[in-house]
Amino acid sequence: MIKAGFKWMFLIIGTMVGAGYASGRELWQFFGHESGLAILLFSIMFGVCCHVILSISHDKQSTHYVPVLRVIVGKHLTSLYDVLILFYLFTTTIIMMAGSGATWQAFRYSYWFGIAALCIPLVLAFVWNLKGILSLNSIILPLLIGGLLFVLILFTWQEELSLLSHIHEQTNWVSAFPFTALNILPLVAVLGAVGSHVKKKGEIWIASMGSAAVLGIISFIYNNSLIHISEEILLYEIPLFAILKQYPYKMFIFISFLLWIALFTTALSSVLGLITRIQEKVQVPLWLLALVIIVIMVPFTSFGFATLIEYLYPLYGLLNLYILSAILLYPIANRYKDDLRY
């Protein structure tokens, strides 16, 4: 049960820690100064949401997200959010592809070479079944989390930063709601596709509480580091590179590789949610669906990584506030049901 719980935890973190998050761009977009309480609220809400979504997915034994969506928002709004999720997953994958292009550009490679470097292994990953994709996540996610934490803790120690120096300044707490809402749709999409693979309720507790704790700690340390270099962030499309500029080139290469892994895992999760939904209507192999969809996406990457995040992420954060509210209220509204006891 513990091993399976960690498997789902890594899937959740892989869905969340994408290009926007790992690069620091998404955190800075929503948090920044006076956001310690906001990050705590995000962690709590995120854990509750993961537990609710996985529980519904498990109870429905779902293989795609629509049955889960129907329980959360009702049958009348399901069609609307179905379209929104498909559009979200589509654009998120485009953002990951653009992020790969930006990452390879930092090493003076072509932007389109960077996009191809993500797209080719992405299609190949779907030659495997779902079990293979989950196994891939469980191998590369610990490396990503460990590497990111190492850099952030090292930066905090070398710069002698205090994690509690701004604890009395918490006026930005309300940003927790759009930030959490932003990340709800991919969770519904991805966790809705694995309900039939979850065996025990204990797995759900490990996955939801574990992912919330890990992401909360990383977010707090990362945001504190970004505050320290706030005047330099405007000069970098990827804020993490502003932290890395004083480190040896080998460290820069290592973290850039980890950033690319973050891009890949989130693109993998997004495409998984997208094609499991489409496969219900079109019975073709997963890898072929992935290939067709990715080819369609490539032209849209020309808008650029930072621009896509700047405009799309706040919009999604606002649009998803209703579904966030519905998920958070679900345990209360269904407290008498035997299948979801809190």
TrEMBL record:
Protein name (Swiss-Prot/TrEMBL): Uncharacterized membrane protein YkvI
PANTHER family: CONSERVED MEMBRANE PROTEIN (PTHR37814), MEMBRANE PROTEIN (PTHR37814:SF1)
InterPro entries according to UniProt: YkvI-like
Keywords per UniProt: Membrane, Transmembrane, Transmembrane helix
Organism in which the protein naturally occurs: Salinibacillus kushneri
Stretches that traverse the bilayer: 38-56, 77-97, 109-127, 139-157, 177-197, 204-222, 251-274, 286-309, 315-333
Domain of life from the UniProt record: Bacteria
